[in-house]
Specification:
- The chain has 422 residues and is α+β, with helices and mostly antiparallel strands.
- 47% of the residues lie in helices and 9% in strands.
- The strands form 6 sheets. A 4-stranded antiparallel beta sheet has the order 7-8-11-12, covered by helices on one side. The chain has a two-stranded antiparallel sheet with strand order 1-2.
- Strand 5 and strand 6 form a beta hairpin.
- Helix 6 runs antiparallel to helix 10 and helix 10 packs antiparallel against helix 11.
- The chain is globular and about 50 Å long.
- The relative contact order is 0.12.
- The chain binds alpha-D-glucopyranose (GLC).
- Alpha-D-glucopyranose binds next to helix 2.
């Protein structure tokens, strides 16, 4: 790869962010919106974790746009702290697109589930780039309220681990780790219809009662909890930085440690050297090896021996995750591994830039800069070959899903991390 290649990647990533910007006045109380949607064609609405990733990418375009992305999203924060995973700013305009989603709403403009709280990391990054105390003072209360909401509504057994109540809540919609809980038995063809049917059952159970829904699907998801623990620590540091009460900062730090301890106590498998999600009240481990199982690597306080096992035995193992274009969302030896997107369902094998971005910074925090750089370089190569798609064949770099996908612009932050951004 040459300097012009890096320049081309960066220019394209910035172009996508600009092209996917949507602004106007919504049918929803005439509120003003201005944000970057994931894809102008397939995802014209605002998504929670996408927007956090967009804000980080936008730091390499215009820091004011990064702040605006977060401010726009926070308009959907509810009085009880809940922030939905989707905000349907232009609902009537994109009725047709909406009809194709498996979606349950809590009012006509917002969805009824949330998504991983990447927001805290995004705001910490915005602060590092701008030192804007006023911005942090403005956005911290609703973000802290979201973390309180999660603790109050997604930790029924009070073990510090949050449970997702629907696959989409983790952001990993059709991951094969959920096949068991959803009762899916994949064959060789499309899984779109069986998945839609399983989701309908879930929504019907939810309509009956929240309790009934929990009996159908309740997963303490390792990736969600790793992002949650990281987010608590980001908030704790931010509170200290902007001079808010130390007691809040200490409390959030303690909560973060409690989540990491719970991950170690309940999800860590000493024999296999990976973490497993827990399903249902019985907390049965879901032993399907996906990139989720490596996600605690993003936590800088994860014990070194544990981090080293994740890296040496799994991440860099060619029989599992070390493919030509890593990191595959599912280990290649899993029967469900679908690198070519034959099932037409997401998160079943292809590599995603947001995953690479998180693990890149995790590896660096653990002192594994060489492996981090290798992942960054292969990500650059993947996007140069495949285009800025939503996800990629981890063996060939062919791009699938939405073209011009916004969070793949996180490549800007990887370029900056590698000292390759002008
Ligand atoms: C897909 C992804 C989800 C993402 C959404 C919008 O549903 O699985 O994680 O938030 O698209 O990009």
């Amino acid at each position: 790869m040459s300097e012009p290649d890096f320049g081309r990647l960066a220019a394209n990533a910035r172009r996508v962010l600009v092209a996917n910007r949507r602004s106007g006045s919504s049918d929803w109380d005439g509120r003003q919106f201005d944000f970057v949607c994931p894809s102008a064609l397939r995802y014209p609405f605002q998504w929670l974790w996408d927007s956090a990733f967009h804000a980080i990418a936008l730091l390499h375009l215009d820091v004011e746009l990064a702040k605006q992305e977060i401010r726009c999203l926070l308009q959907a924060a509810q009085p009880d702290g809940f922030i939905p995973h989707m905000v349907l700013w232009e609902r009537s305009r994109f009725k047709g697109v909406l009809a194709g989603y498996n979606l349950a709403l809590s009012n006509p403009y917002i969805s009824g589930i949330t998504q991983p709280p990447v927001l805290a990391r995004a705001v910490e990054r915005i602060y590092a780039a701008t030192h804007d105390d006023q911005f942090v003072g403005e956005v911290l209360p609703p973000i802290q309220a979201l973390f309180e909401w999660l603790a109050a509504h997604r930790d029924g057994d009070r073990d510090s681990l949050l449970a997702v109540v629907q696959p989409d809540e983790s952001g990993l919609d059709a991951s094969p780790k959920y096949d068991g809980p959803l009762g899916l038995t994949p064959g060789s063809g499309s899984l779109v219809e069986p998945l839609a049917a399983a989701m309908r059952q879930l929504f019907e159970a939810r309509d009956r009662s929240a309790e009934a829904a929990l009996n159908v699907f309740e997963v303490e998801d390792v990736m969600f909890n790793a992002i949650y623990a990281d987010g608590l620590r980001c908030l704790s540091r931010l509170i200290a930085l902007v001079g808010l009460p130390d007691s809040d900062s200490d409390r959030l730090e303690r909560r973060s440690s409690a989540v990491v301890q719970a991950l170690m106590a309940k999800c860590w498998d000493e024999e296999r050297g990976v973490f497993w999600d827990l399903c249902g009240r019985e907390e049965q481990q879901l032993r399907v090896l996906t990139v989720t199982s490596l996600f605690p690597l993003i936590l800088d306080d994860l014990d070194e021996p544990v981090a080293n096992r994740l890296i040496n035995e799994h991440l860099t193992n060619p029989a599992e995750f070390w493919t030509p274009f890593p990191i595959p969302s599912v280990a290649i030896h899993e029967p469900a591994f679908d690198p070519e997107f034959r099932t037409r369902c997401v998160w079943r094998g292809p590599s995603w830039v947001n995953v690479n971005w998180y693990l890149y910074w995790g590896l660096r925090a653990h002192g594994h800069s060489l492996i981090a750089s290798e992942i960054a370089n292969r990500t650059f190569d993947m996007l140069l070959r495949g285009g800025q798609y939503e996800f990629f064949n981890p063996l060939t770099a062919e791009g699938y899903g939405a073209p011009d996908f916004s969070w793949s612009s996180l490549v800007l932050d990887l370029l900056a991390g590698e000292g390759k951004l002008e």
